[in-house]
Write a structure and sequence with these properties.
The protein has 13 helices and 4 strands. Keywords: Membrane, Transmembrane, Transmembrane helix.
Length: 310
Amino acid sequence: MLHLRVLSPRDSTERALGVLREHPGATHLVLVRGAAVDPEGDVIEADVAREAADEVLAALCELGIDRDGGITLEQVDTSLSDAADRAERDAPGQAADAVVWEELVARTGEESRLNATFLAFLTISCLLAAAGVITDSAVTIVGAMVVGPEFGPLAALAVGLVRRRGDLVRRAATALGVGFPLAIAAAAALTWVGNRVGLLDARAISGDHQVDFVYQVGPWSLVVAVLAGAAGMLSMTSAKSAALVGVFISVTTVPAAGYIGVAAVLGQWEKVLASAGQLAVNLVGIVVAAAVVLLTRGRAASRTRPLARG
């Protein structure tokens, strides 16, 4: 269940109540007249089945409440109520299969912002990857994968393309386009310092190593990226966030970026190109797979709604 709070202008309150009363997926309806101060109006609260949320939000936005008032959604972890059970039973579809588009746009939009926190996590993850390459430590490489925040902007790119949200696409592309070069530069700086003080030389990445998979791009690189992108978007749209950890340690975006910085400083240009190819294949594969998942789930949801209304 999701908890819905609506700040409604007084002239829209009755119509908003009508939307919630008529929808079988809404329950626990509460009205407090005149409680909203800024923006001024009434406060309406309700619990909504996840599979009904997208339809309810669309109806409320048609009333202009998102412009003149406000709408917020919160996850309800536990609800002990026969009325809530009926709402979930009567709502169209299944909760795990429902896509709440406004929630998804807001979530991916927030995670794709270019800010100091995003740059810090991406830089730290690339530095960890560089350290893993230099020390030939697969465990450190896996740690870098987990720390990397790049899936947020990649998911936002997919959502922006599917929903035709140019602002979301530009924001995500900016975060990736600025973040990865800066993180690669930081990895190169770490390698340069280590080389200058005699901690490593070109032999550090010569010969056979455990971490050579980072730059060995091939068909399976695309397969893994596609599967990870699909799993990641399924996780985000179904609120099963635990699966995201598996996504993070499946793709070699951050390790490839870290390897670029190390190999460039040590003059291993063939490996620089191979790592760049690995990075590109993973980025494209994740975005395409995530977009396909969204298109598929969106079409499935559009087929379900007319059946529910009927």
